[in-house]
Amino acid sequence: MRGTMVSLVGRLRTLSLLAISVWGIATGVHAADVTVLCSQGLKTALDDLIPQYERASGDHLIVTYDTSAILKAQVEAGKPFDVVVLTPPLITALIQQGKVVDGTAATLARTGVGLAVKKGAARPDIGSAEALKQALTSAGSVAYSTSGASGAVFAAALQKLGIADAVKAKGKAIPNGLTGDVVARGEADLAVQLMPELLSVSGVDVVGPLPAEVQSFVVLAGGISATANKARAEAFLSFLKAPAAATIIRAKGLEPS
Fold first, then answer.
1. What is the pLDDT of residues 183-229, one digit of tens each?
2. One domain for residues 248 and 174
3. What is the DSSP string of the chain?
4. Of 41, 44, 144, 191, which one is least surrounded by beta carbons within 10 A?
């Protein structure tokens, strides 16, 4: 009972800090819609944070999730937005194109790539590069993303392990969406994607992150549209950088910046 009460008090304190933070940065700004284009890597955290921000600020967030590469292409094609969350190189590219305001980029979090199996299935050892190599070559098929940042990390890992051709020959390349869903449906044995994306799929068990020898962290950063209400967009990014929001971001498999 005591542990439950301590947990409840801690959660209430976190919610209070979030509300105070948002109130402080949003005072004087009339409520409106805020359009956010966001990498899937931050989705699990935003699922918890968005309702809190909306209650505290009065603004309504309209969020579209996809891989960073696809969202960048949509911005380049003219898709309207106020805030965009992508990998830093893509944010830089949009700044150079005049789509994102220079000086508004803010690093939000980073996360690694992990591996998952269908819920209840045996979990392979991936504690070392050699163990991961064995797990990947022994699996019947491996689902991996081809358009997200995790795809580039996984491709580099396969090259380093010397098994790129062997894994791709029996792989399930996913152009968009969650690789965990493919494994949950029984269409592949292993799923590889960013840790938060794997954790968001209820039908899989996350084995863990790739070993350090082949791991690369994916960084997510936010930027503000050249056509946005800058004060409102800055308020949302400041909210995501607040210590109380960082607690939730960390709980969802990311390292807040």
1. 999 999 999 999 999 998 999 999 999 999 999 999 999 999 999 99
2. no
3. -HHHHHHHHHHHHHHHHHHHHHHHHHTT----EEEEEEEGGGHHHHHHHHHHHHHHH--EEEEEEE-HHHHHHHHHTT---SEEEE-HHHHHHHHHTTSB-TT--EEEEEE-EEEEEETTSPPPP-SSHHHHHHHHHHSS-EEEESSSHHHHHHHHHHHHHT-HHHHHHTEEEESSS-HHHHHHTTS-SEEEEEHHHHHT-TTEEEEEEPPGGG--PEEEEEEEBTTS-HHHHHHHHHHHHSHHHHHHHHHTT-EE-
4. 44
